[in-house]
Amino acid sequence: MSQHLFSPFSMKGITLRNRIGVSPMCQYSAEDGTPNDWHLVHLGSRAVGGAGLIIAEATAVEARGRISPEDLGIYKDEHIPPFRRITDFIRKQGAVPGIQLAHAGRKASTYSPWKQRVSGVAVPDEDGGWEVVGPGNTPFSKNHRIPRELSPEEIADIQESFRLATLRAREAGFEWIEFHAAHGYLAHSFYSPLSNQRTDRYGGSFDNRIRFVLETVRLMRKEWPEELPFTVRLSCSDWVEGGWTLEDSVDLAKRLKEEGVDLIDCSSGGNIPKAPIPVGAGYQVPFSETIRHSAKIATAAVGLITHGMQADDIIRNGRADLVLLGREMLRDPYWPLRASQQVHQRDAVPVPPQYERGWN
Ligand code: FNR
């Protein structure tokens, strides 16, 4: 039987109640990485709203890996209990709690959107900023800090931080993990030829440029229970001549599958400012479709998916196993309920009993 938006999705030992996930979205609301009531209410209300999967925002594996000083982090054991409070609540609402583990690399130490004067402006030392690192010392933009090139020993230290963060994520009750290897952050900046000019074993050939991702995933996968999904978000194209391509992504997805990765979350862009991205309805869905069919791995589609019929069509036609929604979920935490009406499956999403009188 063909699948649709409201078919349950089973992967390894977990089952999502439908094919709808909340895409990870930075809230710029933490202090020293620690989740608080905002994160509980933000993520919790979207679990109440009926999504099957709730992925917490890019969560830094070391303090230096935060995009902004207000990013979430999971770089010390003290972060575990406040995350556990959130995962417990999400699970009680029938959704699966997920987390995206990240390192911002050369795009770290920037002001939160509503605190900055110009987009992506670096936070200086005197305002709490820090040194940023990357595969080389080319900055992302003229507004960003000049990164310091990582030595092989320092690369190993960051990979160890990803390993430890994976253990903490499990301890905190997450059941779905996503390694953030997209949007120009550290992992993407290693595999893209636009940002990696290294001449050692982490740069140059395709195999060398993907080494950081493969080694890190290998370390993390060992620590993450085999029966729980391990996923990777890729930027499937740099959208410029001479950059990373969809064909590269298919090759990398095949290699990741061999490492025990269960699903590829198909995003794009973010590694150069002002790339000519043809933004429009479902514009990244073709990446998901190609990777799903060519690398024979489960995928999630994301990017300007806003209507129930559109999302249902993506699943019914085998273009993705899941859809992730970002901005539409900010506008409407009850999007799954709305979508169930749009596709004429009113009963597909149970209304929380506390709210039933509002929906009768
Ligand atoms: C994002 N996005 C994002 N992506 C990611 O991988 N990690 C993150 O932490 C964030 N943070 C973030 C914050 C906010 C406020 C927005 C709007 C977006 C990108 C997001 O997950 C998604 O991929 C894009 O927004 C495209 O999907 P939509 O919004 O068109 O459904």
TrEMBL record:
Keyword Manganese: no
Required cofactor(s): FMN
Keywords: Flavoprotein, FMN, NADP, Oxidoreductase
Keyword Oxidoreductase belongs to the record: yes
Signal peptide: none
Pfam family, one: Oxidored_FMN
Protein's UniProt name: Oxidoreductase
Organism: Marinithermofilum abyssi
